[in-house]
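Two proteins were folded this term; both appear here.
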Amino acid sequence: MGATALKAGHVGINVTDLDRSTDFYRRVLDVDVLGSSADGDRRFAFLGRDGALLVTLWQQSAGVFATDRPGLHHMSFEVPDIADVRRAEATLRELGVEIRHDGVVPHGEGASSGGVFFHDPDGVRLEIYAPSGADVAPAPTPGAPTCGFF
C-alpha cells in the first residue's frame, strides 16, 4: 500500500446516551442518520452526509471522557470556509455548549487557519475549523497550538 492510498475513514465514539449524542452531532455537524439500532444493548447510530459515513456513535460506556489518559486527544472536522465555522459556533451557542477561547480563533500565532473548540455531551474534545479566515482574532495561547486545549 502506497502512502497516497491511505486516508482517514469514519470516527467511532462511545457515548453514554445515544439519543442525546445523536441530536448533538446531527445539529452541530449538520449530518444525517444513515442507519441506527436501538435494540437493547446494541444501540448505535451511523452519521454522515450524502451517503458518506463520518461518525458512528456507540452507546457502550458510562461516565465522562477521560482526558488524563492515553488515547484520543481531540477530533477535528474541516469545513470549507470560516462562514461555516461561524454557523457551527451559532449552533453551539444555541445548544448552550461552552466554547473554549470564547469563539473562533486561529490555530496559532500567525496562522490563518482556525476554528471553534468545544466538548461533546460526554466530554470529548472537538474542533470545527476552516483552512483560512480565522486570523481576525489573536491566537489564545502564545507559543502553543490552539488545538492543544491548553
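Next, the second protein.
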Amino acid sequence: MKTMTTDELINLLDANEDLHVIDVREDFEVEHGMIPGAVHIPLGSVPERADELDSSKSYIVVCKGGVRSANACEYLIEKGFDVTNLEGGMMAYDGELEFK
C-alpha cells in the first residue's frame, strides 16, 4: 500500500496540485474540519459508494490516525483503485482546514 506523509500532502496542496482526497471519518469527526477539497465518505459507506469514484484518478485516503484509511485503501485497491494512505491521519495534519 502506498503511503504519504502529511508534510508531502501539505506541499502538494500548497502547489495547487489537483488532488482527490477521501475522508473516511465519521460525521462527528469531520465537524472539526477537513482537508480542503476532501470528499466525505465514512468508512462504513465505502463499499456502497465506491461507484462514485473514478478509477482513472488517484486518491489520498485519510482518517483520524491512519488505521481506518488503511482499511479503506485495502478495500479500494482490491476494487482496482489507485489509492494512497495518509500516514498519521488528521492527528498528524497541521495544514489548512475547511468546515462543511
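Residues 67-78 form the longest helix (12 residues). Residues 5 and 87 are 5 Å apart (CA to CA). These notes refer to the second protein only.
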